[in-house]
Amino acid sequence: MAKGRRLRPVDNSDRAGNEIVRSGISKYMVQKLNVLLAVIVLIFVLLFVKIFYIGRDNGEKYKRQVLSQQEYDSIVLPAKRGEIIDRNGTKIAVSQKVYNVCIDSKKLNQEDGKFLQDTLSLLFSSNIKFRYSEQEIRNYISQNPGSQYRVIAKKQSYDVVSGIMEAINDKENYPNVAGVWLEEDYMRTYPYNSLACDVIGFVQGDNEGAYGLEEFYNSTLNGTSGREYGYLNDDENLERTVKPAVDGHTLKTSIDVNIQSIVEKHILAFNKEHENEYREGNGSNNTGVIIMNPKTGEVVAMASYPVYDLNNPRDEANIKVDFTREMFYGELFSDEENGEGNNEDGTANESTNEGTSSNSLRIETVTEGQDNAEQGDNSDNANVEEQGGESTEPTSLGITSAADSMVNTNGETFEEAYEKAKMEAFNSLWKNFCINSTYEPGSTMKPFTMAIGLEEGIFNGNESYVCNGVLEVGDHKIHCNNRLGHGPLSFSGALEQSCNVAFMKMGANLGRELYMKYNKLFNFGLKTNVDLTGEARTETLVFDEKRMTPTDLAIGSFGQGFNVTMIQMATGYCSLINGGKYYQPHLVTEVLDSNGATIEKIEPRILKQTVSEETSEKIKEMCVNVVSLGTGKSARPAGYMIGGKTGTAETLPRGNGEYIVSFMGFAPAENPELVIYTVIDRPNVPAQASAKYATVLTKDILTEVLPYLNVPKTEEITEKEAEELREKQIEFADSSKEEVEEETTEEGEPSENPDSDESKESVIQIVDEKGNPVNSETLDEEYKPVEVKIDKETGYAIDPNSGELVDPNTGELINNNVSDLPE
Known about the structure:
Blueprint: H1 13-68, E1 72-77, E2 84-85, E3 91-103, H2 105-108, H3 116-124, H4 134-143, E4 150-156, H5 158-169, E5 180-189, H6 197-200, E6 202-204, E7 208-210, H7 212-216, H8 218-221, E8 226-232, E9 238-243, E10 250-253, H9 257-273, E11 284-292, E12 299-305, E13 319-320, H10 325-328, E14 360-364, E15 366-367, E16 383-386, E17 404-408, H11 414-430, H12 433-436, H13 446-455, E18 463-467, E19 470-473, E20 476-479, E21 487-490, H14 491-496, H15 500-510, H16 512-521, H17 550-557, H18 566-577, E22 581-583, E23 588-592, E24 598-601, E25 606-609, H19 613-629, E26 643-650, E27 659-667, E28 674-683, H20 692-708, H21 719-734, H22 757-761, E29 765-767, E30 773-774, H23 779-782, E31 789-790, E32 797-798, E33 805-806
Parallel strand pairs: 2-10, 18-29
Antiparallel strand pairs: 1-8, 2-3, 3-4, 3-5, 6-7, 8-9, 10-23, 11-12, 11-28, 13-15, 14-17, 16-20, 18-21, 19-20, 22-25, 23-24, 26-27, 27-28, 29-30, 31-32, 32-33
Helix pairs in contact: 9-20, 13-15, 13-19, 15-17
């Protein structure tokens, strides 16, 4: 029989013992807390007793010590904001002392208000511009009898308040004038109004700079405010002391007011000449010009159009707010009226019961004469005809501008939405087109492409190319600006005639890795860090080397498919013609203290070497040929030889007939002292695709700038040029709008002598579309002149590849709305 487990009886004595122990501990803790509370209460009682005796026996002593450390009658002494001057010391931004008129209600209410009537009578008999009416001030004084500070007029000049100042200090003749005083302040003014407005920027509330140099150097320009205050000494007597204000520093810039004035004068003349010519509005959507010193990176002039008055930046006459109540409530957003009722896939939006298409409506805001179409593609009228497959990437990103915004109507009034739209319009006006907007560089990129091959030894300058007007790359037919073909061209001739076919062959010979390596070296996709606020970021607007296709490389070789800013292009071009030195662009050259002593000097800063001096010399030589023999003839000022490159950019959406035209140049030819970059965004003319608008504007500017800089003339002036100069003098003297005669060929037009003498004597190397050498004996087979057929009705030639009508002399398309570029 198995033995079972013996069960042990339960013993409850331990549990009871534990409960007794816990009960004892709880009573102990309660007693301990009671004792602690009693001690704390006793301590507080002793502290209160001590404080009572201190206040009774030593109160006056400690009162004097505390009061002696307090400030009384404290007055802020404003610091004077530093000036901005040009390279010659001319003041372009200054701060003038002004006065705020303040009242003391407490004083004016004393002695039954005996000071009130005489003081207000004196104030309102002056020329002070008050913020309130006399009755409103009286009401404030009576309703706020304890107030000792209220500003009733701001920023009054000394001439206006001088009488009040004398009365305050003349108690004998004005015994009842009291409770009013003048507070010193400074007001920012700009002697030249709108001159260099994009560069300077302006000052808004609380002395904060907005845009341009005013914002970028705000902490340098702003000083440190001082203070005048009173305090009680040990004898309880009021004493005064002053902590003086420290004025801000002055900026000396590289801007030359005279050159800036010349640039802005001619930009204005161009816009006035073409104002309302093809459409209602300014002569262009934007016009920008940058002039730089290629030997230092200093910006000598930077201007764009339209402009605004720095002394009145919020003048609504300078903007156009295209926003109505109907737009806000959605009544105009229909297919029939503005096409905004469609979705991205082309289907119509469903309307709500109230008739609105969406709660989130687009507000279009534009500056005067500036619409909101996106822009892009700078190609000298290059066209790409798609034969199949998907379009290449990256697609054109276009020119950027702050113009459209989204507004949610839920909980927002029309007035609130309108104010937002108005501010968008102002922001578009205030932004600097030269550094803030991006676009495709087009044919002004071609010298960079050539420099890559020359620097790497892939090209030697003796190559030649054959242009039949079109080249098939990947799944696309890419057209030249001359659709009938340029025929055989030398290396220099390809640049002179801006032949896209030749440059596509160059690009294929370079390869995407080398092409992208130098793009980064020239700073495309990177900020230049110019000392101005608002420089656009372009790192996402350039090609991705890993995804770059042969078609991308082809169009990239002549400046399509990626975006740049004006300051990027101008700075990079400076390095191409100055021996390869890439200087950081800058405008401030010195920082001065309030006494005019230099405390910091900003020296030219070389960031990198882009190309060798040998390559730079070759690029300069070929750019001079562009002006003397090629598409840039109309840019040459009378008496001077310059170099440069033209550009024509088709904007987005493709085929809209709108273009950006440009010219990048340097002068004089032998030893460049300046680089000038002119960009005209959609000139207000019927046929925009002509770089002559940019070249002629450049010529007009240089015609005045070069003599001003004492650059000696190197060329003889013809009788026709002399006559043109006389006409120009009369034109600007009388502010007339005489039309400029064009004596030279337009961009894309073949010159009489496309090849220089040097290129004729050199050994020509022929290459095919892949960049491979071709036996010169097979040249006749490579180039077969196009048989031109003439349309009997129009007299224009017919492009055998597309059937489009072209100019039989230049080979350029007649219909600018035709485009077969990839979107």
